[in-house]
Amino acid sequence: MGKLVLYGLEPSPPVRACKMTLDALQLQYEFKLVNLLAGENKTKEFKLKNPQHTVPMLEDDGKTIWESHAICAYLVRKYAKDDALYPKDFYKRAVVDQRLHFESAVLFQNCIRNIALPLFYSDETEVPRSKIDAIYEAYDFLEAFIGAELYLCEASVTIADFSVISSVSSLVGLAPIEPKRYPGLSAWLARMAGRPNYQSINGNGAQMLIDMFNAKITKIV
């Protein structure tokens, strides 16, 4: 196996999704911190490896891959002993893919990034109520996805759970999840939080992002 290097920063949900996948596969890797707010992702050296200059970025024996879902799927395909985390069955994989696309388009882009960019790059301090409402709308969908199942794709954990928990755990500071309204989502959140190494791999980074939001936001309008 070649040397694995993951580039990113702890508050980033997509970076944490990759770290959870690496941990589930029991893979050894080096983590290289990239401070986006300081522009460390826009150096000539970094952009040669990743023209999109995003994190996470994975380097596997000198070859680079970016975008968290592509990284997680790649790691399972190449290094997993079985296909449990990303099933080969066409239908089961399609369900996992749907949850992954939901995470990237709805949870991360429409909820997290839509709030974070104005705060951290345009120095805004107020968040429109409509953006908080969008988070709860996403929770409604997740509650429906989970239903009475243990995980997002039925009975076993997949890379979809890693991706979605990385975002949801970052949003609860802005939009708390009430167990009475979201029993399935609440139970799933607790189930994921009980996984080995969860706090060090995801929980701490999620709290960092929550703290960053709280430090910037003065009002929900």
List the main descriptive attributes of the protein structure presented here.
single chain, 221 residues, four-stranded mixed beta sheet, 8 helices, 56% helix, 10% strand, globular
Structure description:
The chain is globular and about 50 Å long. Helix 1 links the parallel strand 1 (about 5-10) and strand 2. The strands form two sheets. It has a four-stranded mixed sheet with strand order 2-1-3-4, covered by helices on one side. It has a two-stranded parallel ribbon with strand order 5-6. The chain has eight helices and six strands. The protein has helices spanning about 15-25, 45-50, 70-80, 90-120, 130-145, 160-170, 185-195, 200-215, and strands spanning about 5-10, 30-35, 55-60, 65, 125, 220. The model has no long low-confidence stretch (mean pLDDT about 95). The protein is of the alpha/beta class and about 220 residues long.
Architecture blueprint of SSEs:
Layout: E1 4-8, H1 13-24, E2 30-33, H2 44-49, E3 57-60, E4 63-66, H3 68-79, H4 90-121, E5 126-127, H5 129-146, H6 159-171, H7 183-193, H8 198-216, E6 219-220
Parallel strand pairs: 1-2, 5-6
Antiparallel strand pairs: 1-3, 3-4
Helix pairs in contact: 1-3, 1-6, 1-8, 4-5, 4-6, 5-7, 6-8
